[in-house]
Task: inverse folding
C-alpha cells in the first residue's frame, strides 16, 4: 500500500511543483516513495530524501532519462509501478507527457489533473475549463493520477532523512531523440508559484508595450502572465500563457490588464485570492470576477499605477 | 505517406456550460457543438502536409454518436480524403478511445496519427499518449511546429519552460497545440464536395474491445462562484484598496 511519485527535476535541482505533488500524494497514502530518474542527479536524490513526507527515494541513473523523453521514462515507471497502488505525478507538461503512456501500458484509466483527494480512490477534478467540478471514483486496482500543483500546498523541504535505494534502468526503444530546449530565462519569480502575477492581453497592442506590464511586475516582484490572444499575437512567449491550455495560477494577487476575460483565460486564474482588472471596456467579462475593477485606458493607468506603487514602502521583496 | 487524423465533437468553446441540477453532468440539449479546437489544428496540419506533396492521403476519424459525422464532414471539407465514423452512443474514456484508434491504425496503417492535445470537455490530455504507448510508437505532444522528414519528424513542443525540439521516428503520434497553425474555414464548394467523399461506418461494440469505463462519475457540481467585487474610480483608490483593504501590497 504505497504511492510512487515521479519527481521532476533538471538533474541538479528538484522542480518546485514536485513538492505540491508530494503533499497531494501524502493525502492518498502516507507511504510516499519518490522516483528520481536522470543523469548525475545525486543532488536531487539528497534534496528529495530530506523532505519529511517522503519515506523512500528510488534513484535511477542513466543518460536515457536526462531529458525525460516519455518513450524512455515510461517503461521505467511502468516496471517500478509493479509494487505500488498509486502512480502519481504533477499535471504540468512533464506529467501530462509521460503518465498516459504508463497508464496505457498498465491498462489503467488515468485520473487527470485532480484538485482534491476525497479518499484513496475518489478525487475531484475540474472539467469544461473549470466550469464544473467532477467527483470521480477510479475502479482500477492500480491508479494513475496527475495532480494540479496549484491546488495543493508544497511539502516541507527539510527535516526528513528518507532511505535512498538505487534501482536499475530498463531497456529503451530508441525511437525518439531530444534536440534542444529553449528556456525563457528570467530573474522574476516563476509564474506557477509567484505571490503576485501581472498579466497582459491583446489590449497591450504590441510586444514593446508589454514593458508597461514588466515594469509593474518588477516593482511588485511579480511574475508576468499573458492571455492566449497576446501570445498568439507574438507579444510574449508561450511559457507566459495563463488559461485552460496554458498555466493555472493561484497567486495572492492577480492583475489582469487589457484582458477581456474569455472562459479559457478565467480557467487559469479565477482561483486567485484577489483579482484586479484594468480594462477600458466596462462590459468586459473579466469585471464579473474581479475584486477590484478599474475601467480605464491602460496606457494611462499603468504609468500612474507604477507611480503610486513607487510611493509605497510596504512592498514585499 | 498517410495520416490518420482524429477529431472529437464537443460543446463549442464559446458556450458557457450549465451544470445539471441533479449532479449527473452538464446540459447538452440545444447547446452548440463543434469540433474540439486543437483537433481543428490537427486537421489543418494534416491537410497542409498533403498540399506540400509529402503526404498522399488523409483519413479523418471520429468516435461518438451519429452527429460526430459533422466533425468528420468538416475535416473532409478542409481537405481530408476519407472519413471513418465509429459509432458509440455513450461516453468512452480516453483509454477506450485509444484502444479503438489502435484498432483502426492497424487496419489503415498510417505513418502518423494527428490529434488535438486535449479535448476541451473532459480536459484529460491522454488519448494521443495512450495510443502511442499501445502502438509502441513515439509521441510528440503540445506540438507547435512540424518538420516532416523521410523517416522521422522534427517537432517543436510548447512546454512549461518555453520550447523544446525533439525528433521522433515514424510512425508516430502527434498531438497538436493551438499555435501550430491557423485552421482555415471550409469554402461552400468544398463543403458540397465533402458530402460526396467516402465515409466508412463502424460500431464500437463490434470491434471486440473491452471498452468498460473504469472511472465512475459520482457527481458533477458547480464550482464555487466568485462574487463580482467593486469598481474603483481611479488608480489611487485601487492602490489604497489593495494596501489597506485586501492587504496584498
Result:
Amino acid at each position: 500500500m504505497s504511492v510512487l511519485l515521479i519527481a521532476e527535476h533538471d538533474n541538479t535541482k528538484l522542480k518546485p511543483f514536485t513538492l505540491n505533488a508530494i503533499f497531494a500524494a501524502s493525502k492518498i497514502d502516507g507511504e510516499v516513495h519518490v522516483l528520481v530518474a536522470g543523469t548525475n542527479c545525486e543532488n536531487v536524490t539528497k534534496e528529495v530524501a530530506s523532505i519529511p513526507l517522503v519515506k523512500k527515494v528510488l534513484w535511477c541513473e542513466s543518460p536515457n532519462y536526462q531529458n525525460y523523453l516519455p518513450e524512455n521514462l515510461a517503461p521505467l515507471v511502468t516496471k517500478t509501478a509493479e509494487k505500488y497502488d498509486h502512480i502519481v505525478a504533477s499535471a504540468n507538461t512533464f506529467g501530462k507527457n509521460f503518465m498516459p503512456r504508463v497508464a496505457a501500458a498498465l491498462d489503467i484509466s488515468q485520473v487527470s489533473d485532480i484538485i482534491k483527494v476525497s479518499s484513496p480512490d475518489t478525487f475531484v477534478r475540474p472539467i469544461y475549463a473549470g466550469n464544473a467540478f467532477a467527483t470521480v471514483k477510479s475502479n482500477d486496482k492500480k491508479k494513475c493520477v496527475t495532480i494540479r500543483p496549484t491546488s495543493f500546498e508544497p511539502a516541507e523541504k527539510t527535516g526528513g532523512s528518507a532511505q535512498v535505494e538505487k534501482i536499475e534502468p530498463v531497456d529503451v526503444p530508441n525511437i525518439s531523440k531530444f534536440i534542444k530546449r529553449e528556456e525563457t530565462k528570467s530573474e522574476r519569480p516563476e509564474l506557477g508559484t509567484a505571490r503576485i502575477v501581472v498579466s497582459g492581453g491583446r489590449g497591450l497592442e504590441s510586444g514593446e508595450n508589454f514593458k508597461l506590464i514588466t515594469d509593474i511586475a518588477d516593482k511588485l516582484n511579480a511574475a508576468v502572465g499573458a492571455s492566449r490572444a497576446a501570445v498568439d499575437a507574438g507579444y510574449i512567449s508561450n511559457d507566459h500563457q495563463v488559461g485552460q491550455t496554458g498555466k493555472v495560477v493561484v497567486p495572492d494577487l492577480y492583475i489582469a490588464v487589457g484582458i477581456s476575460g474569455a472562459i479559457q483565460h478565467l480557467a487559469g486564474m479565477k482561483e486567485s485570492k484577489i483579482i484586479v482588472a484594468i480594462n477600458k471596456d466596462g462590459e468586459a467579462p473579466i469585471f464579473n470576477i474581479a475584486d477590484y475593477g478599474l475601467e480605464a485606458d491602460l496606457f494611462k493607468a499603468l504609468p500612474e499605477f507604477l507611480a503610486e506603487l513607487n510611493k509605497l514602502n510596504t512592498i514585499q521583496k | 505517406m498517410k495520416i490518420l487524423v482524429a477529431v472529437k465533437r464537443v460543446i463549442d468553446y464559446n458556450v458557457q456550460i450549465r451544470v445539471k441540477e441533479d449532479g449527473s453532468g452538464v446540459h447538452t440539449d440545444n447547446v452548440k457543438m463543434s469540433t474540439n479546437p486543437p483537433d481543428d489544428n490537427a486537421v489543418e496540419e494534416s491537410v497542409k502536409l498533403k498540399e506540400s506533396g509529402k503526404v498522399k492521403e488523409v483519413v479523418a476519424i471520429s468516435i461518438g454518436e451519429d452527429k460526430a459525422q459533422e466533425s468528420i464532414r468538416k475535416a473532409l471539407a478542409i481537405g481530408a480524403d476519407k472519413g471513418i465514423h465509429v459509432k458509440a452512443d455513450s461516453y468512452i474514456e480516453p483509454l477506450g478511445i485509444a484502444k479503438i484508434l489502435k484498432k483502426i491504425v492497424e487496419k489503415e496503417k498510417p505513418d502518423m496519427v494527428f490529434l488535438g492535445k486535449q479535448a476541451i470537455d473532459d480536459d484529460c490530455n491522454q488519448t494521443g499518449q495512450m495510443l502511442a504507448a499501445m502502438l509502441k510508437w513515439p509521441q510528440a505532444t503540445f506540438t507547435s511546429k512540424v518538420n516532416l522528414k523521410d523517416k522521422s519528424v522534427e517537432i517543436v513542443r510548447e512546454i512549461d519552460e518555453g520550447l523544446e525540439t525533439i525528433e521522433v521516428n515514424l510512425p508516430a503520434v502527434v498531438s497538436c497545440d493551438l499555435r501550430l497553425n491557423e485552421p482555415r474555414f471550409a469554402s461552400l464548394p468544398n463543403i458540397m464536395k465533402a458530402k460526396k467523399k467516402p465515409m466508412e461506418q463502424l460500431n464500437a461494440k463490434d470491434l471486440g474491445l473491452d471498452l468498460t469505463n473504469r472511472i465512475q462519475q459520482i457527481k458533477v457540481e458547480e464550482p464555487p462562484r466568485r462574487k463580482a467585487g467593486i469598481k474603483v474610480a481611479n488608480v489611487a483608490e485601487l492602490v489604497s484598496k489593495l494596501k489597506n483593504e485586501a492587504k496584498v501590497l
About this structure: Chain A touches chain B through 92 residues (CB under 8 Å).
